[in-house]
Amino acid sequence: MAPFPENCRWWFSRAILTAETKATVANMTFCLLLRSGTMGEWRPFEKEWNNTLRKHKAKYLHTTDLMAFQDIYSGWNKPQRDLFLRDCAKVACKHSARADFGGIPGKFGLYCYVVTFVLKDFVEWAKANPGVPNNVDEACMRQSVTRIMNWSIDQADCDHCHFFFDQGEPFLGHLYQWMQNKAALRDAPYLEKISFKTEADAALTPALQLADLYAWAQSHKLIARPPIWQTKLLRSHFEWQWFDKSNLNDVDASVQDMWRSWNLPKRATTK
User: Fold this and answer.
1) Is residue 102 situated within a structural domain?
2) Does the residue 64 lie in any domain?
3) 244 belongs to a structural domain
């Protein structure tokens, strides 16, 4: 009997750092975070994540609201918040995939990919280079979908991919347009491997809460005094791309002409 085909599940979330910090680079950053895994990897994570929520009497994790003590976290204090985030980061690190490194064997788990743009640099680059992406949401999707689909097929050997997007974010709209475009399907056949796509409520979805945790940590990685939980989380194994004025010309460098040939609808320019 042939083995049952494995599906990679990708969960999309984002974070935007809007306030300047004392970091070396004090620009606004935009971060798209994706977490992948098969059902055999998600179930143990979800069980432990939900146990952590119950332990701390939290309905769900929303990192931005928690850091600001707002919404359901109104009335929390700093020690309470930090203990909760420490335990969430501990679960995240435990279930992350890890590559072989320095003689230490790797392990299967949840694979994380993050793409980040420094918005000030992105806006200036787009103005100075006609023809490149001028919408940061679209640029994030281009970079991420190309990378994660190649990883899912070549590394994870997945037959199909399921995409889940946080409600109210624009990325699903981009994907729908690509998958309805004959030229895109011809030039990027991996799009046909995306057999399921939908939105999900982050408050009810541990995977999106995990993605949000990584997105916040990565987009705030230049803050002057990062908390211990954030430092440990960012030391876990994950793949990331960070684009600023030093390397923005690498965005889609080899496939700009192909994307333009698809004649996709124009998106609002990021300002």
Assistant:
1) no
2) no
3) yes
Query: DSSP string covering 65-123, please?
Result: HHHTT-GGGTT--HHHHHHHHHHHHHHHHHHB-B--BTTB--B--BEEEEEEEEHHHHH
pLDDT for 235 equals 85
Place of tokens 């994660």: 148
Tracing tokens 């940061």 back to the chain, one arrives at 136
Instruction: Please give the residue range of the domain that contains residue 215.
Output: 7-38+111-261
Mark the ranges of the chain whose per-residue pLDDT is less than 50: 1-5, 18-27
For the chain, the domain total comes to: 1
Express each pLDDT in 52-80 by its tens digit: 999 999 999 999 999 999 999 999 999 99
The answer to whether position 175 is within a domain reads yes
Give dist(CA 176, CA 165) in Å, integer. 12
* Tokens matching residue 153: 């097929």
